[in-house]
Amino acid sequence: MEEFDELVAIMQRLRSPQGCPWDREQTHDSLAQHLIEEAYELIEAVENRRSQALCEELGDLLLQVVFHAQLAAERGEFGIRDVLRRLLDKLYHRHPHVFGDLEVSGSEEVLHNWEQLKLLEYAEAPRQSVLDGIPRGLPALQRAQKLQRRAARVGFDWEDWVAPRAKLEEEIAELDAALASGDSEAICHEVGDLLASVVNLCRLAGVDAEQALRQANRRFEQRFRYLEQAAREQGRELSQMSLAEMDEFWEAAKSASGHED
Q1: Do 67 and 61 form a contact (C-beta atoms < 8 A)?
Q2: Which range marks the domain in which residue 231 is found?
Q3: Residue 222 falls within a domain, yes or no?
Q4: 57-70 pLDDT, tens digit each
Q5: Which residue, 188, 207, 226, sits at the end of a domain?
Q6: Which tens digits make up the pLDDT trace of 67-100?
Q7: Hey, how many other C-beta atoms are within 10 angstroms of the C-beta on 244?
Q8: 33 & 82 share domain
Q9: Residue at a domain's end among 61, 86, 111
């Protein structure tokens, strides 16, 4: 595609001796954080249903892919064409129900086949653990979900959400004991166990923990902004209000948003 070729040419120019000093200084390591930031900006555009912002953020993310490929090409490792070829081969291989003769009954069977095909691919480069390949750089909540899902593949799992719900009570009791002791290390340990148990409960209840928390964060932000605006309309600042007064506004914000929880 003409535009893609132009993007690759621009990146090559930026990295050339006649290019941009900043771009020439970058490495895979220095760009890693930018890649993460662009991914989160893309997610925000998706959640806000802003199509033009989504278009722009997709471009920014694509730039990061091309940038990393250019760095690798300069070292003689691989180039953007290799990235595309490997991606295309993967898509063909993992969609035999589209590009082959395999018949599937629905999306669940598609996902099952996808996982089986991935295992066959990994057989060519054996892994030491079913947990291998889960990036350590993932947000902790998201990584917890992936770790638990991988363990569940080999039967290390509860039958349903009932037992994990009971496990929460056990973890809360252990956290209460740690809080009473005042041992900061023990408190941190038990809080971690409690969070992991919540993630497990979400998974077995069919809820994406990351998405659930993002939605809760969004509700909190909307309600807190409502609270701030309500205070301003009275010519006051939140710091001048009592907790009881703020709570009254908070309840009004919940009603205004259509959520009473």
Answers
A1: no
A2: 215-256
A3: yes
A4: 999 999 999 999 99
A5: 207
A6: 999 999 999 999 999 999 999 998 998 898 889 8
A7: 7
A8: yes
A9: 86
